[in-house]
C-alpha cells in the first residue's frame, strides 16, 4: 500500500472543491497518502491546469522530500477531476477550498450539505473567516461534523495545518481529522475560532509593519526581506512572500482583520495603491521585488 508518513487509518474517498493553488495541492497531499481524491471545479479548463501544476510539483521532486517515490509516482492517478459536484456525494470527507468570500464559500457549503452523506466530515480551508459563521450555512445536524482546516502554501511542503472547531463541532471529529492530517505528514494545532485564527494574525501584523517601513522610506523591500531572513531566521522575506501569495490576497485578508479588530490591522495605503495598479505579484504580474528590479534596470 502506498503510504504517507505515519499511516494508520484505512484509505478513504475524499473530495476537494476548488482547483486553485490551494485546493489542487490539498488534493495532492491526500493522494500522496494513498487516498482516492475527487477534485471538483466548475471549469474543466481549471481542472486541466490544476493537474498540470501538480505534475510539475511532482516532476520537480518537491513532494518526494516528504513522501516515498512510489507514492509520488502514483498520486496523480488517484486524483479524479470532476465538474459535477454531485460526484462527491459518497465521500467520507470533503474540503472546501474556494475563493475567500463568505457568500462564495456559503453557497458551496449549502450545496455540500444537501448532497453529502450524513456521516461525511465537511472542512473549510478558510484562512480568515470565522468557522462558526460559515457553519450557519449548514443544517444544524451537519454542524457537528464541520470544522476549519487551514493549510499553508505550498501545501505539498508546508507541514502546519490549523484546525479550527466551530461552536458546534464534535470533539471526536477534531480527533479524527487531527489523526488523518498526521497520516498526511502534517502537524496540526487546534486554534480558537476567531477571525484570522493565529498564524494570519501574527503574519499580517508583520506584513503591515513591513509595508509601513517602505512607506516611511526606512528601507527597501529587498533590504527588509534580507533583514527578516538573516536577522530573524525567516525562510522568506515579507515582500517575497507577498509576491508569491499576491498582495491582492493579503489586502483581502487585512480588510477582514480590520473589520474584526479595528485600527491595528488597517491595510496600508501603499498596499492598496499597488494592488489597484496591478502590482500584486503572482504568476505573470510584477510585485514588490520584481517591480523594483525592473525599475532599477530602466535607470
Automatic annotation (TrEMBL):
UniProt keyword list? Membrane, Oxidoreductase, Transmembrane, Transmembrane helix
Q: Using the record's annotation, list all stretches that form the 3-hydroxyacyl-CoA dehydrogenase C-terminal domain.
A: 196-288
Q: In its keyword annotation, does this UniProt entry include Membrane?
A: yes
* Protein family: Belongs to the 3-hydroxyacyl-CoA dehydrogenase family.
Name the source's superkingdom: Bacteria
What are its GO biological-process terms?
fatty acid beta-oxidation
Question: What does the record give under GO molecular function?
Answer: 3-hydroxybutyryl-CoA dehydrogenase activity; NAD+ binding
Q: Where is this site: Important for catalytic activity?
A: 150
> What parts of the sequence cross the membrane?
12-33
Q: Which residues form the 3-hydroxyacyl-CoA dehydrogenase NAD binding domain?
A: 13-194
Listed name of the protein: 3-hydroxyacyl-CoA dehydrogenase
Amino acid at each position: 500500500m502506498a503510504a504517507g508518513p505515519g499511516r494508520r487509518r484505512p484509505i478513504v474517498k475524499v473530495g476537494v472543491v476548488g482547483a486553485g493553488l490551494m485546493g489542487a495541492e490539498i488534493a495532492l497531499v491526500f493522494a500522496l497518502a494513498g487516498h482516492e481524491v475527487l477534485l471538483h471545479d466548475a471549469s474543466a479548463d481549471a481542472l486541466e491546469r490544476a493537474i498540470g501544476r501538480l505534475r510539475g510539483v511532482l516532476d520537480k521532486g518537491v513532494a518526494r522530500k516528504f513522501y516515498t517515490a512510489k507514492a509520488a509516482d502514483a498520486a496523480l492517478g488517484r486524483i479524479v477531476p470532476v465538474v459535477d459536484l454531485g460526484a462527491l456525494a459518497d465521500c467520507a470527507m470533503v474540503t472546501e477550498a474556494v475563493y475567500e468570500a463568505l457568500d462564495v464559500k456559503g453557497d458551496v457549503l449549502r450545496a455540500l450539505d444537501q448532497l453529502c452523506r450524513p456521516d461525511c466530515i465537511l472542512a473549510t480551508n478558510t484562512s480568515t473567516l470565522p468557522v462558526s459563521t460559515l457553519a450557519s450555512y449548514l443544517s444544524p445536524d451537519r454542524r457537528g461534523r464541520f470544522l476549519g482546516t487551514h493549510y499553508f502554501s505550498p501545501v505539498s511542503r508546508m507541514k502546519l495545518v490549523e484546525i479550527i472547531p466551530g461552536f458546534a463541532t464534535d470533539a471526536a471529529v477534531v480527533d479524527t481529522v487531527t489523526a488523518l492530517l498526521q497520516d498526511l505528514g502534517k502537524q496540526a494545532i487546534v486554534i480558537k475560532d476567531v477571525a484570522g485564527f493565529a498564524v494570519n494574525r501574527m503574519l499580517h501584523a508583520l506584513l503591515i509593519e513591513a509595508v509601513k517601513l517602505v512607506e516611511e522610506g526606512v528601507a527597501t523591500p529587498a533590504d527588509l526581506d534580507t533583514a527578516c531572513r538573516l536577522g530573524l531566521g525567516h525562510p522568506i522575506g515579507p515582500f517575497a512572500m507577498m509576491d508569491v501569495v499576491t498582495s491582492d490576497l493579503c489586502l483581502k485578508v487585512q480588510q477582514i482583520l480590520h473589520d474584526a479588530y479595528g485600527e491595528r490591522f488597517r491595510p496600508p495605503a501603499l498596499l492598496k495603491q499597488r494592488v489597484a495598479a496591478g502590482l500584486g505579484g503572482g504568476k505573470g504580474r510584477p510585485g514588490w521585488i520584481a517591480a523594483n528590479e525592473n525599475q532599477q534596470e530602466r535607470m
